[in-house]
Amino acid sequence: MELFTPDLGLIFWMFVAFAVLFLLLWKFAWPAIMKGVDSRAELIDQGVLYAREAKEQLDNAKLQAEKFEAEARTRQAEILREADHMKSQIIEEARAEASREAKKEMDAAKVAIEQARKEAQQTFRDEVSAAALTIAQQVVGQTLADPKAQAKLVDNLLDNIEKTN
Question: What is the C-alpha separation between 138 and 150, in angstroms, rounded?
C-alpha cells in the first residue's frame, strides 16, 4: 500500500524534481515559448494590418475604377454628340453643295437653251430672209439687186412680223 500513501522522502524528492524541472523550463523553455507566442502574435497583427491596407487599396481601386468608368461614359457621350453634330454638319454641307450644283446646272441649261433658241431664231430668220429674197427677186426683179438693200428690207419685214405676233 505504499503506492497509495506516499512517504515523506518521496514527496520531498518529487518536490525537488518538480522544482528543478520548473526552474529549467522557466529559464530555457519559457522564454522560447513566449518568444514564439509573441512572434506569432506579431505575425498575426501584421497580417491584420496587411489585410486592412489591402482592403483600403481595394476600396480606393474600386473608387478610382468607378471614377474612370463615369469619366469614360461622359467622354463616350461627348464623342457621340460630336459625331452626331459632325454627321448633321456633313449632311447639311452635302445638301448645300448639291443645291449649288443643281442651281449651277439649271443656270447652265437655261443659258444653253437661250443660246439654242437665239441660234434657232437666227437660223429661221436667215432662212426666211433667203426665201423672202428669192421671192422678192422674182417679184421685183432687178430693183433689189443690191444685197444690203435686200437684207434691210427683209429685216424690216421680219421685225414687223414679230411685232404683230
Answer: 13
